[in-house]
Amino acid sequence: MSDIIKRASAGTMESSDAYVEISPADKGLEISLDSVVQQQFGEAIEKVVLEVLTDCGVQNAKVNVIDKGALDCVIRARVETAVMRGRGE
Amino acid sequence: MRRSMLFLPGNTPNMLINGSHLGSDALIFDLEDAVSPAEKDSARILVRNTLKYMDLVGCETIVRINSIDTDYWKKDLDAIIPQKPNLIMLPKTNFAQDAKTADEYITEVEQRCGMEVGTVKLMPLIETALGVENSFAIATSCKRVAAIFLGAEDLTADLRCKRTKGGAEINYARTRLVMAARAANIDVYDTPFTDVNDDEGIRIDAEYAKALGFTGKASISPRHVDVINEVFSPTMQEIDYAYEVMEAIRIAKEQGRGVISLRNKMIDAPIVARAEQTIAMARELGIRRD
User: Fold this and answer.
1) Is residue B148 part of a domain?
2) Which domain holds residue B270?
């Protein structure tokens, strides 16, 4: 699994979508989340983001997620796409 | 049963996640025209996840992949086939070989995933003059082809004519495709009616398509779904007549009569076959006859 080599993004700011930005980092994973449902589901969303990053084998990256009420499957898709793009795939 | 098929743009979560609540018998997740080249990767993963995680109960799933003359179609199939959609729509199918090429690669992916070969069916989208002329060869190109679908927007561009509401310019293509599909014993679907705000126009267009023999019709707008479903469903009069036909057959058999008539008309094999189709569809729709 290759590391994140460049800054990349996926998704939109539209309702039911999420905008995910990923960039290279030196040590570990740093996730920041801004969600319209932060209070209710913030922890669960961060868990999903972390799960996708782990499944993709990403060990070092900065990930910024702006969630507009996206379902899990949408967040998963946007994170995975951002990872692929960040790897230059 | 596929009366209506609703196109959903493949990179728009809001539409994808709500698609199954819009009343359409089938949903077409579009990875082709509705997705810009820069977002092909994103849409592919989003549609894959929608099929994988969303509960789309009551809807058949169809994915329109990119055509085989692009760099995307194999990646589309790699991502989508393991999620077992009902059908793959193959755009710009011009030759039987195009469908065979897609069939061979779908087989490869199915085998790779441990799926039974033939699980996912194929629906070639015929949208060029060449495709129309080759429609029977396409319809019979391989066992995986379960239906063909007419795409009139690209076709009229290819014909160098204007698309009209009356549809005279696509009449030949419509009848040609119906003939090819029925000769091949597969389903055939009509092109969408593109004026989203013309409620009368969609009804006329759908009724005409049904009269020509189409199985159902696609739509680009949720607003058209109810009308299409209504037009392609049997009416109560048709259902009543179908039951009368079957009853007349039963009585004639009991009495040992060979020639059967109903309402002063002879009942022959095609009428019985149509009655059986009508009753089967009514049952599938849950229409009860008291």
Assistant:
1) yes
2) 236-284
